[in-house]
Amino acid sequence: MSVVLPPPGWISLPASHIGETGTLWLREPAGRNRQLLLHQLREDIYPQPFIIDDGKTRRLHFNRKLLQSEMSLSQPDELALAYARTVMTFPMFVPHPEHVVIVGLGGGSLTKCCHRSLENCRVTTVEISEAVIACRDWFLLPPDDERLRILQADAADYFAGPVDAADVVILDAYDEDGIAPQLGERTFFENLQCHLKPHGMLVVNISGHSRTAEDFVDLVADVFSQRCGEVDVPRDDNRIVFAFRDAAFPPNWRQIEKTAGMLASRYPYDFLHVLHELERSLQRRRRKRQPKL
Predict the structure, then answer these.
(1) Is residue 3, in this structure, part of any structural domain at all?
(2) Neighbours of 292 (CB within 10 A)
(3) Is 98 within a domain?
C-alpha cells in the first residue's frame, strides 16, 4: 500500500490511539501538540471535524460516535450510507430538476451524486462551516463550475435573502448535538418554502426518534400544510421526510409508480419501496388528523 503524505495544513496520527484502524487526519499545523490533540479526540472535545482513513473507506467525523459521511476509496462516487440512497429517490417526483439546493456538505456524497447524475441541473450546497468545506478534496468533490457551487453561509440567512428558486431542497445539516438548532425555527421553513418552485419539494434527513426529532417532523408537516410523509431507514437510525409545496398534492401515485420503475432500471436505489412506504405514511398521517367520533 502506498504511503499517503499529509497535504499542506494537515497532520496524521495513528487511528489506533482512539480505538480505530488506519490513519487520523487533522487540519492542524505541523507543530501542534499531538498528546493534547489525542486527549481532545478521546474525550470528544476536539473542536474540528476530522477524517479517519482505513485504506478502504474514508470517514468524516465530528466526534468518535457521530459519523458525518463515508466514502469507499474503491468506489468514491457510490452512496455508502442507506439514508443518502433514500434521499436520492426524489427524482421520481421531480424527474428533471433545474436547480437543487443542498443544506449541509458533510463529505459531499449527495453533492457529488446530484452533480453527476442530474443532467443540466445546477447544484448549490450551503455549508456554514469553513472547516467542513476544507475537507472537500479528501472526498474527491469536483471543483466549482457553472453547475456546481459550494457556498459558505448560514442556511437561515441564505433562504432569508433573494436566491434562485429551487426545484428540490435537501436538508442534511447536523452539528455535534444533532439537528442544527438555527434550522429548527418556523421562519426558516417558511422562507425555504417560499424559495421552492410551485411543484418543488423538500427532502429532510432526520436522525433518531427523540422528542426533538418528532417536533422537527411536526414543524415541517405544519408549514407544508400536512403535504408530507416519512420513510424510516432503520439501518442508519434515520428518517427521510418528503414535503411537497404543490397545492394539488397528493400526486397520482400510479403515475409516480411508473416513473419509479423506470428510474429503478437506471439507478441502484429502491424507488418502489420508498414510494410505497411514503404512501402508507401519508395515509397514517391523514387518519391521525381525522376527528374521532
Answers:
(1) no
(2) 3
(3) yes
- Compute the distance between CA of residue 46 and CA of residue 27 in angstroms, rounded to an integer: 11
Q: Which range marks the domain in which residue 271 is found?
A: 82-289
Q: Tell me which range, 5-19, 186-200, 237-251, is most confidently predicted by mean pLDDT.
A: 186-200
pLDDT above 60: residue 293:
no
Global pTM value: 0.91
Long-range contacts (CB closer than 8 Å, 24 or more residues apart) made by 49-53:
49/129, 49/131, 49/132, 49/135, 50/24, 50/25, 50/26, 51/24, 51/25, 51/26, 51/135, 51/138, 52/15, 52/20, 52/22, 52/23, 52/24, 52/25, 53/4, 53/15, 53/22, 53/23, 53/25
Are 97 and 47 within one domain? no
Pairing of strands 178-179, 174-175: antiparallel
